[in-house]
Amino acid sequence: MGATFVAWAVLPALALVASADEDPPLRPGDAGPPLRPPLTVLRAAERAAAAPSIAVGSPKKELIVLVGGYASGSDDHVFDAFRARVAKEGGYDVVRFGQDVGAYDTFGAIDANAERLRDSVRTLSVGYGGVHIVTHSMGGVVADRAFALGLSSSDGVTTYVAWAAPHNGSRAAQSLQSTLTVSGPAREDTRGFTATHFRDPDTAAVRDLARARAPGPPSGVVRLDLRLATDGLVTAADARDPGVDSRVLLPASVVELEGHGGILVSEQAFDLTLATIRTRAVPPDGRGVALRAASDAVSQAVDDKAQLLIVGACGLCLIGGFAAMFRRTLRRALPWPPLSE
């Protein structure tokens, strides 16, 4: 009993010695990022926990996430014109998927890229007043799949604007895949010829684009599709997405005549995109009936010509593939190479 009373008496002194050996306590901000909860009610709690860092009454900045198309690289400049326009507007942070955040393999499987886009948006969304997704070409299909794989308005996504996106699958990709199938024993030769003169026709991305189907608008997210009437790579049938407000625009400059890439510098597309982001609503279509009819007529005419060009290009690739196969075979059979040539 005596020893117990003595121990009680020296406990305060021992506590002081122990505290003197410890480092200063870490501030909450130095303790590292919090673990991100799954899609549960904890997501709302996490957002609430991030709010006190912003002064009461001050609006939170919003984020624009850009997603490029097939074969776009992390060091290209496809979105430079739009980023410059956003910089003039002010009030938004802009990041590009695969360049500023996340890993994006534009030749890889759509679903794998979609999962990385979904996770990147969820990570970035905390601390922002809203997230806006702007895509070009295949980037629209990647975003479609990201929503199908769980991305939603609960992750802070408020608007999604797609430029020249083949939501309903790419006819060009389907034609390339059919060409490879028809080539039979010359499949690899046809693929090699096509990759040399155009693009590789048998990547995971091309196969997925050939099978893509229109998903419809995600719940709670404002959706707008924009496409130039002179876009021959993504046709009206490719871009069809039931339930989504879609606008076909006439080119306003010589650069925009190449419709698929021209939309990347289209001031009309920039105006509509930023109006959608700013108001979180699809802006009214101020064009007259005649102008809209003209846009649709030009689009239909370009689509018809583009289909002929795609068929012709596929036929050329098929001939080139068989020629390469016969050339390779003759080189093996004939002893003197010039005879095989």
Explain what the structure shows.
By secondary structure, the chain is an alpha/beta fold. The chain has helices spanning 2-21, 42-50, 80-89, 110-125, 138-148, 171-183, 187-197, 204-211, 236-239, 259-262, 267-279, 289-333, 337-340; strands spanning 62-67, 92-96, 131-136, 157-163, 222-228, 245-249. Helix 3 (80-89) links the parallel strand 1 and strand 2 (92-96). Helix 6 (171-183) packs across helix 7 (187-197) and helix 6 (171-183) packs across helix 8. The longest helix has 45 residues, at 289-333.
CATH topology category name: Rossmann fold
Poorly predicted ranges (pLDDT <50, ≥5 residues)? Answer: 4-57
Shape, principal axes of CA atoms: globular
Number of domains: 1
Task: Give the proportion of residues in helices.
Answer: 40-55%
Tell how many strands the DSSP assignment holds.
6
Order of helices and strands: HHEHEHEHEHHHEHEHHHH
Q: What Rg do the Cα atoms give? A: 28 Å
List keywords for this structure.
globular; six-stranded parallel beta sheet; single chain; 49% helix; 11% strand; alpha/beta; 6 strands; Rossmann fold; 341 residues
